[in-house]
Amino acid sequence: MLHNKKNAMRRTILSTAFAVVALAGSGSVLAQAKDVEIGLIAPMSGPWARQGEVMKIAADLAISEINAQGGIKALNGAKLKLAVFDAGESVEKSKNAAQRMVADGVNLVGATGAYLSSFTLAVTEVTERAKLPVLTFSYADSITTRGFKYVFQTSATGDAQAAGSLPALVALAEKTTGKKPKTIGIVMDNTAASVSFVKPIKETQLAKLGLELVVDEVFTPPLANATPLIQRVRSKRPDMLLLLPTAIPDAKLLLEKMNEFGIGKGKMPTISNGAAILDPDLLTNMNVEQLEGVMSVVANWTTSAQKPMIEEFKKKSGQPWATQHFVTTYGDMWIFKAALEAAGKADREAVAEALRKMDLSNGPADYFPGGKLKFDAAGRREGASLLIVQWQQGIPVTVYPEKESLAAPIWPKN
C-alpha cells in the first residue's frame, strides 16, 4: 500500500516536472516567434524627404506581404517589423541618426538606407562598429572600398555606371541619328554620388570616346539660381548634356530654366544619374512636355522582369510608378527574409554571414538588374548592371539594356 502511494506520488512529481519542461519549451518557441526588427534609415525630412517616404512605403508593403505569407518560417513564423530613423538633410544629421539607430535599435538584425551616398558613408561608419549588416543602393564606390564587412551594396557603383553609361549613350545617339556626339556638357551637384559618377568619365571616358568637355559646372544643393549654369549650356550647345542633381527641387529648377532658355523639350539630349529627375513629384509640378525625352542612368527601376507586377505595385503602393527607391527597398526586405531563413535565427552576425553566402537567381533577385544576388568579398553585388530610363509620354520607362527594357529609346534631336 505504502509502496503504491510512493509510486503514485513519484508519477505525480514526474508529470509535474514534464509539464514544467513542456511549458518552458513552449515559452522558448514563443520567444523565437517574436517580431524581427529591420531598420530603415533615410531622409524623412528636408529636401530628400520624398525619397525617404517612398522607401518607407516600399518597406511597409514588402513587410506586410512577407508577414501575410507566414513571416519567417525558420523562426516559427516570426513577423518582420520596421523601425524608421530620419537621416535628415545633412551628413552630420545622418550620422546622428545612425548613432540613435544603433543605441535604440538593440534588437535590429539589419538595416537599409541611407539614400545619398554621402549619408551612407557616414551612417555605415557607425553601423560597421555595431556589426549591423546594412543593405544600400547608394552609388559611391568608396562605400565598399573601406574593408567593411557589414555593408552590402546592391547597386552598380558610380564607376561601373560611368564606365558603362557613356559608351551606351554614344551608341544610342549614333544609332538613332547616324551621327556620333562630339561635345558634352556637365552640370552637377557636389554630392558623393555625382562626384563618383563623373570622376571616371573625366579621367578616362571622354578621351576614349573622343568627346570634348565644353561645359563643366558644379553647384552645392540646394540650388538658389539655375540661370548662370544654363546660360553657359545654351551658349556652348553641347551635343549632349549630363545634368546631375540629386534633389528634386534642383532638378525642377534646372529643367524649367532649360525650357525657358529654349533648350528643353527634347531640343538638347539631356541625361542624368540617379532617380531625382525621374520622380513623380516632377510630373505634378511641371508641364509634362518639359520632361519628354529626358534620360537618367540608374542602378534600378521597373524592368521587363517585373512587368507582371507593375499594376499591382501601383495599386498597393498608391504611387504612379515604382521608382528606383521603391523597387530596391522593396527588394531589400525580401533579401533580409531570405537571409533570416538561411540564418535560422534573429541574430545580426548570423544574418551578415547569410548575406555573404547568398547566391540567388530568383525570388528577391528579380528586383535587381541582372537577376542575380551574390556579394563579393568587398560587399558589392556581383553582376550589378546599369539601366537607362527615359521620360516618354509622361512616364519614365526603362529603355536600356534591351533585354530589360519596357520601351525603345528615343534620342532627342539637338
Question: Would you kindly provide a written description of the structure presented here, covering whatever features stand out?
Answer:
This protein is an alpha/beta fold and 414 residues long. It has two domains: 36-156 and 304-383, Rossmann fold (3-Layer(aba) Sandwich); 159-298 and 388-404, 3-Layer(aba) Sandwich (Rossmann fold). Helix content is 44%, strand content 17%. The strands form three sheets. The chain has a seven-stranded mixed beta sheet, with helices on both faces. Strands 2-1-3-4-5 form a five-stranded parallel beta sheet. It has a two-stranded antiparallel ribbon with strand order 11-12. Helix 2 crosses helix 11 (324-343), helix 3 packs parallel to helix 4 and helix 5 packs across helix 6 (192-209). The protein is globular, with a radius of gyration of 25 Å. It starts with a helix and ends in a 14-residue tail after the last strand. Residues 1-32 have low confidence and may be disordered.
Biggest sheet architecture: 7 strands, mixed
Order of helices and strands: HEHEHEHEEHEHEHEHEHEHHHEEEE
Question: Which regions have little confidence, pLDDT < 50, spanning 5+ residues?
Answer: 1-32
Query: How many strand units?
Result: 14
Proportion in β-strands: 15-25%
Helix content: 40-55%
CATH topology descriptor of the largest domain: Rossmann fold
- Described by the principal axes of the CA atoms, the overall outline is globular
pLDDT averaged over residues: 89
Task: Tell me the name of the CATH homologous superfamily of the largest domain.
Answer: Response regulator
Please identify the top-level CATH class of the largest domain.
Answer: Alpha Beta
